[in-house]
Design goal:
Length: about 200
């Protein structure tokens, strides 16, 4: 709720509570308005910033001597002094193609699951490359479904159309799983609703 003393450019003081509905679900991570402040329609500044914190972007810098060792799909182990004793796994999505002329480093960006909300935006820490298995891919553990004695995942082949793929898992730490075969780079896997898809398939739908 936001309280405004003046709305719509009127010269008369107006008081009351006004409900501001966010277009997305999430948490308020920044606020630029306080009770009693004037809110004007010609002010383009955001009053609140809302963001979902279940998954975060991890941005890190890699030295030029190590760039050749980092690839999309590799895993990073992130630690921070704010949460001693805990490790978080991130999956690299982007490796910068140029170097910062001052630091001689390249930017990398990774996706970092944050299911319990322990990590907060703007936290600092250290990211280390987890020794990858070349030729293998990493997917979120949530994308895997047990089918009898085998493991499957669902790949989107067209909007609203999915196919089942049997995969061979060589490592699963509960956050990411290493897939030895069954998937190709660039495959879009289902991470939410995969169990439902498996149930529908079992029912012959």
């Amino acid at each position: 709720r936001a309280r405004a003393s003046q709305l719509g450019g009127t010269t008369e003081a107006v008081g009351g509570d006004f409900v501001l509905r966010a277009p997305i679900a999430g948490e308020v991570i920044d606020r630029a308005v306080n009770s009693g402040m004037e809110v004007r329609p010609d002010n383009g500044a955001a009053l609140f910033t809302v963001s979902g914190l279940e998954v975060l972007w991890l941005t890190a810098n890699v030295y030029q001597r190590d760039i050749a060792s980092v690839h999309r799909g590799d895993q990073l182990v992130f630690t921070t002094e704010a949460l001693p004793g805990r490790q978080f796994l991130a999956s690299v999505l982007y490796v910068g193609g140029s170097l910062d002329p001052q630091t001689r480093t390249a930017a990398i960006r990774a996706i970092l699951p944050n299911p319990d909300g322990a990590l907060k935006p703007q936290m600092f820490g250290e990211a280390r490359l987890r020794a990858p298995i070349r030729g293998a891919l990493a997917v979120p553990t949530a994308a895997l479904v047990t089918h009898g004695s085998e493991t499957v995942t669902f790949v989107q082949v067209a909007p609203g159309r999915f196919v089942r793929r049997f995969v061979h898992i060589t490592d699963d730490d509960g956050v990411f799983a290493t897939v030895r075969d069954g998937l190709q780079p660039g495959d879009i896997v289902v991470t939410k609703g995969s169990v439902l898809l498996a149930a529908e398939l079992a029912e012959g739908k």
